[in-house]
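To make the argument concrete, we let one protein speak, a sequence paired with a row of structure tokens, as a model reads it:
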Amino acid sequence: MGLQNVGAALRLRLPELGERMTERIRAEVESYADESLIPFASLRESCEDNADLLLGRFAYGAEPDVGAAQQTGRLRAEQGVPLADTLHAYRVGFELLWSEMVEEARRHPEVTDAELVGGSSEIWALFGRYAEAVAAAYREASAELALQREARRSALAEALFTGALADRTTPWEAARQLGLPERGPYAVVAASVPDPGQEPLPGIEAALRRFGVASVWRLLPDQQIGLVSLQHRDAEKVSLRALRRRRARVGVSPRFDSLRDTPQALRFARLALAGLPGDGPGVTRFDDSPLAMLVAAAPAEASRLVEVSLGPLLALPAAERARLLQTLGHWFTSGGVAAEAAERLFVHPNTVRYRLRRIEEVTGRALADPLAVADLGAALYALRVLPS
């Protein structure tokens, strides 16, 4: 009966206890001292509610009710208060409440030492139960908030990529909500998805963030696309290195300064990706090969160019066709120097010259004519990068 009387007596002083508990918590837990984050009146109300439930347990044997603790956990998650600080605040409150119970017990001769020992064990068992309730509610609310934030980020990123931002949200407001600088330069990245739902660039946002490079990403059925800030001095170098490490097929747009140009930059990144030769991994920038971008941008016209410029050569028997195409490719790579092309092919320079004359004969185009060389070079590149 002794501790029941103590609990009942303290319940009559709830407003005073709530005030003192609030002041103690604000003095000992840094984040709780921020009035704009946790108003004094709100914290005092929470302290009184929790103290009332605890004292009710001692005063009349009420069943432990963790409802207030759960509500506090959810509220602190929404306010952005760290969980460690929230649990620290609960410990401070329990310690103060127990010290008040011990002090009040001195005014009640009927309270025995055994009751105090039992009360101490019970109140700290209750602290454990309340702390678990706070933590569980906090984590649940944090997970919900994270999902909401991710859905919001995803929607804003989609709006930037498509140019479909709502009238009430400017690109710069979207940038702030996405954690991006409000000014460029930026670049857009597009990477091929190997299998639906599989990220070709796993962990790319976190990897870039470690180097101070902000970015936002979207996973589509066929591509993973990203908007990367290049404000950081080494952002481009860091980004390209991180992209290459993922061993994916990646296209990168030119730099641009206005977020309103994001949809156009996405188109350029996709053209760069489409112009990446071969089937293996690689990273190519739109500006690395303007010719490749032209071919990727107009595949039907590029196919026609191949037919017109290289059609007669492609009609040759397979062995001769392959030999002449290989020679023409090395000649272009060597800057039109037959001797250097011969070294690459491990043949005599006269062999290269003979094959070049054969190409002129078959195609009807003179390699001394710059316009003819431009047509053949573009057609040869298109032959390499276009789907068969």
